[in-house]
Design a protein that fits this description.
By secondary structure, this protein is an alpha+beta fold. The protein contains 4 helices and 4 strands; from the N terminus they run ββαααββα. A two-stranded antiparallel ribbon has the order 1-2. Strands 3-4 form a two-stranded antiparallel ribbon. The protein is elongated and about 45 Å long.
């Protein structure tokens, strides 16, 4: 699917999205460990996911969907824009019959806030 002159979305983006989703869940788990004064082993998957924290905290185009509870098999690859931006990103969204979807600004802010709060309330 061609989104812009420089961006095409494909099934490869589905794989990348699942990887990011796994990192989000790992960071949530890491936050829970930190709140309980626990520790992690250096080679642990949670530590590996820390590299993605800054990216996930600033990725406002697609991260609102990373914590959706919809079945992963029913998510579709889509082009996503925010506001009147020219840049787009590829991600997965819940299935819809509409060729164009829209979230009200307050709803999208709420989805992003939940994501950043759960990732790490102090560092996002």
């Amino acid at each position: 699917m061609e989104c812009t002159h420089h961006l095409r979305c494909s099934e490869a983006d589905r794989i990348r999205w699942f990887e990011l989703r796994e990192h989000v869940h790992n960071l949530i788990e890491l936050g829970n460990v930190a709140r309980e004064d626990g520790y992690i082993i250096e080679k642990n998957k949670l530590r590996h996911s820390l590299r993605y924290r800054d990216y996930l905290c600033t990725e406002y185009r697609s991260s609102g969907y990373l914590l959706q509870n919809d079945s992963s098999y029913h998510l579709q690859v889509a082009c996503m824009w925010v506001g009147g931006e020219m840049n787009a990103t590829c991600g997965l969204i819940p299935s819809t019959e509409k060729p164009f979807g829209y979230h009200e600004p307050e709803e999208w802010r709420r989805m992003l806030f939940v994501s950043s709060y759960q990732l790490n309330e102090k560092n996002c």
